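Can anyone check this?
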Amino acid sequence: MTITFYDCATAPSPRRARMVLAEKRVEYSRIEVDLRAGEHFSDAFRAINPNCTVPVLVTPDGEALTDNASIARWLEEMYPDPPLMGAGPLGKARVAEWLWRCEFEGLMAIMEVLRNSSKAMAGRALPGPHAVAQIPELADRGRERAQRFFSILDQQLGRSPWVAGDIFSVADIAAFVFVEFAGWVKIAPAPDHAHLAAWLEAVRARPSASV
């Protein structure tokens, strides 16, 4: 069974999918997409994903999954061990809850900062094939949102070893990528976020963190 994964080693979104693949111990064929060179806007890549974004996972049946939500869901169904989307009704609900929070309150905040402040992303304030102007005020708001979410994560990790409870999940992967992605725009947790710091060490010790 051959899985093809369209990746970009320097982008945060594909890293989330790579970590899921690594945790599931799934073998796949990898194709690097050079975002800086604009390969995601090429006709060849548009034929695979008209949204012009990575990651993309192409299943052995030739179906292209073009976002982290669908990729993680498919991998969870095809490779249920270890479970990364929770166990039991409540466990699955908690993972879904915290995954949404990590994406909306964390990753989107950093995306606001990067895409609305980087000169390299002028006219590309939103991912996809359409030109979108930057709004500098959104970068300021993103910095404030990110700092608030650091505090929320620290409080949550004081209550449980992993973001959504007792087992490592896709919520931890999303939160981890958020924290490391924040460093790209010089945003970091406060020194007194001890629970968050301990959790970061635990995630970085996992093999999937280095893929």
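Reply from J.R.: I decoded it. The helical segments are 12-24, 43-48, 68-78, 88-117, 136-157, 170-184, 194-204.
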